[in-house]
Amino acid sequence: FNTTKGALIRSMLFPKPNEFKFYRDSFRFIRVLALIAVIGFFISAYNFIRMGMNVQLVLVRALDLITIIVPPALPTTMSIGTSFAIHRLNKAGIFCISPLRVNIGGKINVMCFDKTGTLTEDGLDVLGVKYIEPETNKFSKLHTSADELNALQNNGSPINS
User: Fold this and answer.
1) Is the pLDDT of residue 86 over 60?
2) DSSP labels for 64-116?
């Protein structure tokens, strides 16, 4: 496993644990909602007791507030969404070795295919650029010169600057 190809196999067999911002932010969001729910719980409990309601009803109503504010199904929903995405990719013949990266794939707007030299060379030479034509939803012809790309960009092409 000391070669580049071995390192690739090792990364597939033993992937590094990843912490994606999406998941981290989702759980932060849940913690903030939980804090708001606890504050609301105490305010509601205080008001209900002040109105003379019995303690059991106060607890039930105040706990209702917590279950309404904090969505208990959010982590499950995120996992189910990722599972559906992986299933659809599998049906298209695309196999995912890291389910956490599926959500990141939705943010890709530039992709580079380098079939030859991937495992043996450290550098990368770009042969050209193809973009998706908005009218046909198909790849454009291969654009190999910077002048050609600059002309496309100046003529209102879908290539972003």
Assistant:
1) yes
2) HHHHHHS-TTHHHHHHHHHHHHHHHHHHTT---S-GGGHHHHTT--------T
